[in-house]
Amino acid sequence: MRFPDVAPARRALLLRVIAAAALAIGYADLIRGGTTLAPLLLVAGYAILVPAVILAW
Amino acid sequence: MVKPPVHMPAPRPSYGIAAVVGAAVLALYLATLAPTTAMWDASEYITAAYTLGIPHPPGNPFFVLLGRVATLVPIGSVAMRVNALAAVCSAFSAAIWFLVAERVLISWSELRWPRIAAACIAALLGACAFTVWNQSVVNEKVYTVSLAFFAIVSWLTVLWCDDPDGPFADKLIVVIGYLIGLGYTNHPAGLLVGPAVATAVIVRRPRMLMRWRLILATTLALGAGLTPFAFEPIRAAWHPALNEGEPTGCADRIGVGCTFSKTTVTRLMANINRDQYGKPDLSVRQAPFGAQMGMWWLYFKWQWLRDAGESSPRTQSILAMGFLLLGVLGGFTHWRYDGLSFWFFGPLVVTVTVALVYYMNFKYGHSQSPELTDVAREVRDRDYFYLWSFSTWSVWAALGLASLWKMAAERLELPETRRWAVTFPIMFIGLIPLATNWRDASRAGETATREWAHDLLNSVEPYGVLVTLGDNDTFPLWYAQEVEGVRQDVTVAVTSLLGTDWFARGLRRRAQVPYDAKLGPKVYRDGTWPMPTQPVFSLSSAELDAVPDYIDVRTPQVFQHETLRAIVDPRQLEYGVVTRGDLLVLQLLKDNFGKRPVYVARTSGNYVRAMGLEPYAVVQGLAVKIAGAPVVASSNLLPMPGSGHIDAARSRALWGSFGGPAAIIHRGDWVDRASIGIPLLYIATAVSLKEVLTSVAATQEAAQVELTARQLATAARLTEIFNP
Questions:
Q1: Is ipTM > 0.90 here?
Q2: Partners of residue B65 in chain A, C-beta under 8 Å
């Protein structure tokens, strides 16, 4: 019973870390003038990862 | 027959079939997709996406990011990729409307296949409503992305309504809040779905409003959804090719101090709040509310049969009345069979219809009540603002059809499945717009705007400054220059934006791009074109900012610079005074005298004359060159009443290189009448050229040019020019 309880929490945490990293790196690239990686990461972060984080909370 | 309870457990939604429906709609859109740019804002948004720039306020940061990602997909041209984004968003919405309709119809029939069939019709009807279809095959606006936001929020709300106390209910509410915020960063219309969500919550679970932690979490999520606005000052500080509103305090390069400055905050908020447009207070109606609803009704009629040629007004009205009544019946059907989601969808329909009409507060529509000659009108038809209204109404119209189908089926004394099957053809009514709108909604093979942009830019000599006046003689040029790399040596100065502070600063900052003779038209290949080294404005940014909005003089004023002496008559100018834009045009003439040729696009009406420049005007193709001294007629410079003189040799050579006429003739129609000035200008150019050719006895060439003019008139439905 322990594994199913813990794994979703870890998955949720991992998801939060990935979402935060995507947005942080996306904005960092945007600040340095990036026009390819920044939009890819920001769209992935805002459109997919953040909603996923909320649903997995 | 016993009516099933409203609260019966919902079976699993048919996600697989929804995906197939979405794919079918996408296939339809791709088959009718514009291969390149189009008139109005399409070019601006494609350019913004490609350059990761800032389009007109509020700047649409999430759209720009999404659009940029679309441009990275290595299929087709850049324009096609952005157009396909619109198609994907609308197809996604169609799939969601399928799910919503299927959900509504759960207790409507015990058989699954009639529910699936009716839901398919709902999705198709919404996808083929004229404005939805027409806006989904070219990315003219950001509204198809908004439609996708509406659809996903709708579906999440339906799921929440099904189980407001379930384990996911609170998370759904928080996600909905987040998506509403994110939708706002695509376009402020993203908020329109909010009242419908609030109504659903109040009706379904009013005590939820007392749960302050959930309310706080939802508010925070909504705030998180708004954070893409941070994109604007960051990207603006890099001064991309398109940097409307310039929402940054950084003059040269990005920095912490200038980004976190009062100037940045002021400019960003001005952008987000769309201060540039200065719309009147809602209490000051720009047209009577009845007329504004009349505008909606005009566009509603277009949805089921666009009839751009106005050949079937009676059929159009009958269809509109039919689909209006079907929608009313569908609303009732929705309430009867799925009261839970009705209290979301009903308020959504009202919000995007009546409330939006009130909020937008438009003047009379461009095509509305043509018999009224003394009313203020919108510069174009704005049916696209009601795309969400027509899309959601279509779902109800399909539910209305389903209701008729059920009534017909229940009258037959046949086995259950058979009677549904026999009466199914009633649902074919929902396919009418697919057939009736195909010709006018399709943008397949439509290349005229791209060709127009090339033709206008090529009418300007290397390193020229081209003064333009509005959207359609400006945005396509931005697209051609920044996306296709065509004639980037030309500086495009649009008078309407010269009235803002940021546009003049941007022109001053713009680096001169070298002219590539190999890519330019033949007519300039033998010339010598030294590249100017100075910016187009000699004034500093601060001096440009200090140019007043207008000078309140009403009498003719003399402008003199070296051999140029113009008598500017404010009474002939648009606003009756000399505006900042006019002053900066004169400044451009002064600063570029002898360095860069200055042109005015021939779409400008009588602007050249109003500015007192007619004695210096030389028509070259689609533009007017302002000569350095009064023009003297010669064998090549022939008088052209009202327009100065025409450069016969140059115009003849340019006409031979134009791609616009063939593109218009090939399309065979010009649906958008608000931009009819473009084909009209080609016809006027051809008629002038024909006279020139006749005067030099080039009769065969003159006849060919006249034939093209007549073909253009036929294609654009302007034959009255030749047959008054």
A1: yes
A2: 39, 42-43, 46
